[in-house]
Design a protein that fits this description.
This protein is α/β, with parallel strands linked by helices and 211 residues long. The protein is built from six helices and nine strands, in the order H-E-E-E-H-E-H-E-E-E-H-E-H-E-H. The mean pLDDT is 94. The structure holds iron/sulfur cluster. The site of iron/sulfur cluster (SF4) has 12 residues, from loops.
């Protein structure tokens, strides 16, 4: 670690161990590192911690690496999420040091922010805006969160992605602790009509009431 690395810091809002509840990595335990802040402001965002000033903690690179190491010793799967991890300054430096510690790194992103570090092992792209220049091959899976109301703009993005990417998930947006029946039915109907191009994701952590 050099001096620059020692003064590098990261704004985070949560760090916890749980089981991945959605997408192709479902069921695997991860240490979840949630970054504070996001350049987007989706009106239905279900991650309020990332913009609450009281949840913001700034950790130096050293402290963050030590905290991750001690959090769940022996668990080498790390999931970077947010907020927006791609918007974190020095993400590439953090990823480099995590790889030196033999971590397997997953990241969930809206695709808006800085460049994607090469060493990310698994990338979940959850588009919230058009991303015409996003390198399709870089996303291991693509996920859309559907609400109860039909959204023609989002429908067009889903159609675009499902014709170009082999792993596109539809996931209903929960409203608090209530199962989103209408949104789930929208996802179900679209998956059925997709000729096998779309998959249904139902967030098992919500059912288990775990983070
Ligand atoms: S991109 Fe994600 S974290 Fe950012 S505002 Fe939208 S839903 Fe929230």
């Amino acid at each position: 670690m050099n001096n620059d690395d020692a003064t590098t810091s990261f704004a985070i809002c949560d760090l916890f161990t749980s089981v991945q509840g959605e997408g192709a990595q479902v069921g695997k335990p991860f240490v979840f590192l949630r970054f504070w802040g996001c350049p987007l402001a989706c009106p239905w965002c279900d991650e309020p911690k990332h913009r609450n000033p009281h949840t913001r903690r700034v950790l130096t690179l050293n402290t963050l690496l030590d905290t991750l190491e001690q959090h769940t010793p022996g668990l080498n799967h790390i999931l970077l999420t947010g907020g927006e991890p791609l918007a974190a300054n020095y993400l590439d430096i953090l990823v480099k040091h995590l790889k030196k510690r033999n971590k397997w790194i997953a990241m969930e992103t809206s695709g808006i922010g800085g460049p994607i570090p090469d060493a990310i092992d698994w990338l979940t792209l959850s588009p919230k805006t058009p991303l015409p220049h996003f390198p399709l091959e870089r996303a291991n899976e693509v996920k859309f969160i559907l609400g109860a109301e039909t959204d023609p703009i989002q429908e067009a993005w889903i159609d675009w992605w499902m014709m170009r990417h082999p792993c596109v998930w539809l996931q209903p947006r929960w409203q608090g602790t209530l199962f989103p029946t209408v949104a789930a039915n929208r996802c179900y109907q679209k998956v059925l009509a997709s000729q096998g191009r779309l998959r249904l994701s139902l967030q098992i952590h919500k059912w288990l009431n775990i983070p």
